[in-house]
Amino acid sequence: MKKVKQLQSAPASLQDFLREYPYEKRKIIDWKAFGNEGGQAKSDLIQALDEVQQGLCAYCEIALVKQTDKGPIYDRQIEHFHPKSDIPSSIDWMFEISNLFAACRGGSQILMFGEDSSFKDDERCLEPYQKNHSCGETKKDDNLDNIILKPSELPVSPSLFVVSDDGGVDEKACSQTGVEITKAVMTIKRLNLDCVRLRNARQAIWEKLNEVLAVEWESLGDEATDDDFETLLAQLAEEMLTFEQNEGLPAFFTTIRSFFGVHAETVLSQASQTPRRFANGKASVI
Questions:
Q1: pLDDT value at residue 276
Q2: I need a surface site. Which of 27, 48, 82, 251 has the fewest CB within 10 A?
């Protein structure tokens, strides 16, 4: 989990919908109406959230769209950090833009990605299914405002969550930023970010990075030194963490960032700590 940007304003179609369903008359059934009468507005909103988050789930960082030879499959939903059911309230939690994120479906799409599906994908759906649910699927409609970390309020640097080579997540980096370690621990626990499904996905990324590094290291020959190794890491970090504006980030960004350690932080700081986007060619090695 990393810091994500949020929309600065509601899409025009959402603003139109809210004129018909004003906050002063808010009811829980308005969310159903948003999906029916406001179908286009809902589609516009999830697409806008997807784009501002650079294509990744606000919590686990899996890609929100799976590309297949039959076209894209959308594994995403609108996530309310504070429960949308908190009505009445001084804040319109259902449509308050700072309360909205794009999140994956947390391993719940069995018919789409499960064992007997046409697009079986263990990163998106793994038995036992219930134990491998994550993100909004485990958060549900609970009010965790004071219990877990909000993605938009995380610091850009350093990363609060350090991924190890076995796919686990270490929250110790929080001590460097003044963030409550208890909240980091509860974020992992309540969102089930360390479930086997996600651990395996992060470990697969780590192993692919190791393979790339091994091939490049071998190409340097037997005379290569420790300094050469550090230089190689720095070069690979620059290649894989060089961004372009209109391309999506690779899934499990924090895993890649953790793999390159200080070299990743150097590259990202040189980009003024502004989230940019991976070039397709660079991300392809992942």
A1: 44
A2: 27
pTM of the full structure: 0.91
Mean pLDDT, 10 residues at a time, over the chain (286 residues)? 94 96 97 90 97 96 95 97 97 98 98 94 97 97 97 89 70 80 92 95 94 93 90 93 76 93 88 45 40
Residue linked to tokens 């499959």: 73
Helix (H) or strand (E) holding 80: strand 77-80
- Partners of 67 in beta bridges: 72
Contact 241, 268 (CB under 8 A): yes
Residue 71 pairs in a beta bridge with: 68
- 3-state SS assignment for residue 53: coil
Bridge partner list, 100: 80
The pair of three-digit structure tokens given for residue 214, joined into one six-digit string = 């091994």
Which H or E element spans position 254? Answer: helix 253-270
- Distance between CA 59 and CA 192 in Å, rounded? 10
Question: Do the Cβ atoms of 248 and 63 come closer than 8 Å?
Answer: yes
Q: Which residues of 148-159 are buried (b: 16+ CB within 10 A; e: fewer)?
A: bbbbeebbebeb
